[in-house]
Specification:
618 residues
Length: 618
């Protein structure tokens, strides 16, 4: 299957996309024709027209991608969409109103776009088909050339195999002839069936026997013994004088009572020196001098010791470069140097923090900015801690945190925040926007309280009489003659209730208005006492403490379940898990308008009849 353009679109898929786009365009044009037949466009018709326009936008994006992938022109399609957009955009600005339109012009812009879409799809399909035909022909030509090349290759392979066989036989014949001239072979068969052999040719002497004995003085001069083993050997009172052992290993060896006057080399590789005692006086080397390690680097090594004494002016330095896991709280990236100097632990480096999926730092406006970092200097010593965070010039201190026995000190150089003193002695938290009388435990309860005027509080959040509550005397004391317009959602959100048409979609007049009114007439008045108020009043009688204003008066109204049973569930308020919570009293009475309208018509009818009867009796 071939592909075209930079997007590598499949030919079969591209053809199918073009056909589907054409079907969708025809469908959109048909749907627009079905919207209406006059020069009026209602809100519901506008909604349908908007859906068809959105489909045209999707078709346009598909067409543009296809045309650009094969470098085809897009001017016709761009012009058609521009005309369509300019025509319908003003209509969509007033979705809730009926608009007057030119029906012929509406049909014209949608039809023009459908035509441009059809033309674009057809041009693209034609291009795809041409590429497919060219690819098919090229494949057939390549297949024919490959067949001829395969036949020539098979003939060449047969000739090469025969030449290789001839060369192998010639080499074997030459080797056999040479061995016949130079080799010496002696063999002895023992009574137990074993054999001992001696072979010699121009390159090698082979001795193969159970035991080989050299009796007398034997010398091995100027030779190298490679890959040899001397097992269970004892070398006593011997010396290797003025010699060198190069590229050799002595495995599992023990060297007792010996001295190595000179050890030439850089490393002791892959092993350790283990001993009960190492006498420094006997170790003389470039890196060890009179019991002192001078200018020695321990690289990729671990120094294990019960105590490391750096002396009065000792210094210990380490470079660090770490990135904390993003699952941690405010993870950090930090790169720099850590130094232990004269009893003070100092850190200098560049730091980033991970916030909202990005690494960054604090800019000079004291806000987080992705991609930057901050130079930091930290010093910890007996009795104090200091942390400096620098501005972007890496010279001026932006924020400083300092702690010592006198207290906690924090300073921001731009004046946003500055505090001196012991925070453990601060009884309250105050900022310019929140004045909190207290935040935390009070009278054995955890409670938040903000603002007060005598016994009247601005806001209280906390437990009251065994229940959590939000109280505000300030809100209670502010009265109005306006209608209620606040609603609490099932998620606890305070929202404003509205009735204007600008907040509504799909406004209709249902046919069941009369039926709902008759159903409402079958619901009867009920009375009750509020359960929470009674329980709270009983709690106050028991404890003697009034924590909240309560009333156990009798209430009059309707019961939500009875309203549901009468077939008026659309006027019920539901909570979580679709549990019944209350009645929408502000709109439950509306169905009675149809009943009143019907009764009013009857009254008018009876008055007309009565008037006629009175006129006839005169």
């Amino acid at each position: 299957m071939s592909s075209i353009g930079q997007g590598s679109i499949s030919i079969d898929d591209s053809t199918r996309i073009g056909e589907n786009a054409q079907d969708t365009a025809n469908e959109v044009a048909g749907n627009v024709s079905d919207i209406n037949s006059d020069n009026k466009l209602t809100p519901s018709e506008k909604l349908k027209l908007k859906q068809e326009y959105d489909k045209d936008i999707e078709l346009y994006n598909i067409d543009i991608e296809q045309l650009k992938s094969v470098d085809l022109p897009t001017a016709e399609l761009d012009s058609a969409l521009s005309n369509l957009t300019n025509f319908v955009t003003p209509l969509f600005k007033e979705m809730n109103r009926t608009s007057t339109i030119d029906r012929n012009a509406l049909d014209s812009v949608f039809t023009a776009f459908a035509t441009a879409d059809k033309n674009s799809s057809q041009v693209f399909v034609n291009m795809v088909q041409q590429v497919a035909d060219d690819a098919k022909k090229a494949g057939s030509d390549a297949k024919e050339v490959g067949k001829k090349a395969q036949e020539a290759g098979e003939e060449a392979k047969a000739s090469a195999d025969q030449a290789k066989a001839d060369a192998t036989q010639a080499k074997a014949d030459a080797t056999a002839a040479q061995q016949a001239l130079n080799n010496i072979h002696l063999g002895v068969k023992n009574a137990d069936g074993s054999t001992a052999t001696f072979n010699m040719n121009s390159n090698t002497i082979l001795l193969d026997a159970n035991k080989i004995i050299f009796n007398g003085k034997t010398s091995i001069l100027d030779v190298s013994i490679d890959t040899a083993k001397i097992a269970n050997a004892a070398i006593n009172t011997a010396q290797i004088a003025d010699g060198a052992i190069n590229n050799a290993k002595i495995a599992n060896a023990s060297i007792d009572d010996a001295k190595i006057n000179s050890l030439n080399g850089n490393k002791l590789v892959e092993n350790s020196i283990t001993a009960n005692k190492i006498n420094v006086d006997d170790l003389i080397a470039n890196g060890i001098n009179t019991k002192t390690l001078t200018s020695v680097n321990l690289n990729t090594s671990t120094l294990t010791t019960p105590q490391l004494d750096l002396g009065l002016n000792g210094t210990f330095t380490e470079d660090f470069d770490y990135t904390q896991a993003t699952s941690m709280f405010l993870p950090k990236k930090n790169k720099g140097t850590l130094t232990f100097d004269h009893g003070s632990l100092q850190s200098k480096g560049d730091m980033q923090t991970y916030v909202d999926g990005k690494w960054g730092g604090m800019n000079d406006n004291y806000t987080f900015q992705a991609g930057i970092d901050n130079s930091q200097w930290t010093e910890v010593a007996p009795g104090y801690i200091k942390l400096d965070l620098f501005k972007q010039n890496d010279a001026d201190v932006g924020q400083r945190t300092y702690i010592d026995p006198t207290g906690y000190y924090y300073t921001s150089r731009n004046g946003i925040a500055s505090y001196l003193g012991n925070i453990l002695q601060v009884p309250q938290v105050q900022t310019s926007s929140v004045l909190a009388e207290y935040v935390g435990p009070r009278d054995g309860k955890s409670r938040l309280q903000i603002g007060s005027n005598g016994n009247h509080y601005g806001l209280q959040v906390g437990p009251y009489a065994g229940n959590e509550a939000v109280l505000s005397d300030f809100i209670y004391d502010s009265t109005t003659s306006g209608a209620p317009n606040v609603n609490i959602t099932v998620n606890g959100h305070l929202v404003r209730s509205t009735s204007a048409s600008k907040y509504k979609y799909n406004i209709k007049n249902p046919d069941i208005e009369t039926t709902l009114g008759d159903r409402l007439l079958n619901v009867h008045l009920a009375t009750w006492n509020d359960k929470r108020a009674v329980d709270l009043y009983a709690e106050q009688l028991s404890t003697g403490e009034e924590r909240e204003k309560t009333s156990i008066d009798k209430y009059y109204g309707l019961i939500a379940e009875q309203l549901r049973d009468a077939g008026l569930g659309m006027f019920i308020s539901y909570g979580k898990n679709h549990e019944i919570e209350g009645i929408q009293y502000d709109r439950a009475w509306v169905p009675l308008l149809s009943v009143i309208r019907r009764l009013n018509d009857k009254v008018n009818e009876y008055e007309l009849r009565l008037s006629k009867l009175e006129g006839a009796s005169k």
